[in-house]
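Problem 12. The chain below contains 209 residues. Write out its predicted structure in C-alpha cell notation.
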Amino acid sequence: MTKQEFLKAITPASGFSDLLGVYINWSGVGFVCAIIAERLDHFSGISYASYYTTSLNSAIGVKFWALISIVGLLLFCLSLPLIYLAEKLPGIQSSCQRFRFFSYGFFLVAFDEGALILGILAANLVHANEKAELLTDKSFLFTEASLLSIVLLIVANSLLWLLGESLYNRQHKNYSGIVRLIISCPLKYSIPLYMLFTIGFVMFVINQS
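Solution.
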C-alpha cells in the first residue's frame, strides 16, 4: 500500500475539511477567554472580576480532557469487536450503531475540549494570562506551557478526532476510515495487534498516578 493509498484508507467519510475550522473556532475561544481574563485580573479586587478570572482555571482542566479521551479510547476498543460481530450478525447492527454513536460523543467532546485548552496554552506561551498557567499543573501529560506541549496536544487531539469520525459519521451513521481499515484487515493480523494495543493501553491507564 502506497502512502497515498494509506492516507485515503484512513480518511473518514466526513473528510478533513472541517478539522481546521473547528480548531480555529475552539482554540480562538480559549485564547480570547485567556486574554479577557488577563485584562480582568487587573481589577481582581472587584468581586465580578475575581469571579471570572478564577473561573477560567476551574472550568477547563487538562485532566478532564484526559479522562474523556481515555473513556473514549476504551469504548473504541470495545466497539471494534462489536462492529465485527455486527457484520456477521445483522440482528445486533442497531445496537452496534447506538454504541458507536455513544462512543463518538466522547471523542467529540474531548476534541472540542482539547482545542479549547490549546488556545489557553497558546495564550500561556505568549504570557497572556498567568492565571491560566495553573491549568498545566493538572495533567500527567503537560508540565508547562511550551511549544512542545502544544504540538503534542495537537497530535493527540487530532488523533481523537480521526478515531471519532472514523467510528461514526453523523450523515450516513456508518463507520469509515481507520475503523473500516481495521475491520477489513485479516484476523491473523488484526487480533494480535488489537490485543497488544488494548492491553498496552489499559496498563498505561492503570499505571498513571
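Discussion. The CA atoms of residues 20 and 168 lie 19 Å apart. Students who got a different answer should revisit the alignment rule from Section 12.3.
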